[in-house]
Design a protein that fits this description.
The chain has 107 residues and is α+β, with helices and mostly antiparallel strands. It is built from two helices and six strands.
Length: 107
């Protein structure tokens, strides 16, 4: 597990990269708040970001890195189940949630 500095939302805002068996899960916390808006324009910030410039920069950098490296992302404020992947189209970013599967005991 590696801490990833993601300044902007709060002082010391940090994500975590967890690697195992050649796969990576990036837990990025409050990097994104309104996916429908910020997937179209990652530069958009919210008033709750303590440093809007840093938040915008962190979001753009970590989104590009996660898409390029095919990270699985776990995040607050994203479509249920809050775990998925990012890809970049010509127009904007695409969020693809992992399929939510109920536990075997619930089937």
């Amino acid at each position: 597990m590696t801490a990833v500095s993601l300044p902007g939302h709060t002082a010391g805002h940090t994500g975590y990269r967890v690697e195992s068996d050649g796969k990576t899960l990036l837990i990025w916390g409050d990097v994104m708040h309104v996916a429908v808006v910020q997937l179209k324009d990652p530069a958009v910030t919210i008033k709750f970001d303590l440093s809007q410039a840093d938040a915008s920069r962190s979001r753009a950098t970590i989104m590009a890195d996660a898409a390029k490296r095919h990270y699985l992302i776990a995040a607050a404020h994203l479509q249920f189940p809050g775990i998925g992947t990012l890809s970049k189209s010509a127009q904007d970013w695409q969020w693809t949630p992992v399929p939510a599967t109920p536990p075997a005991s619930a089937q």
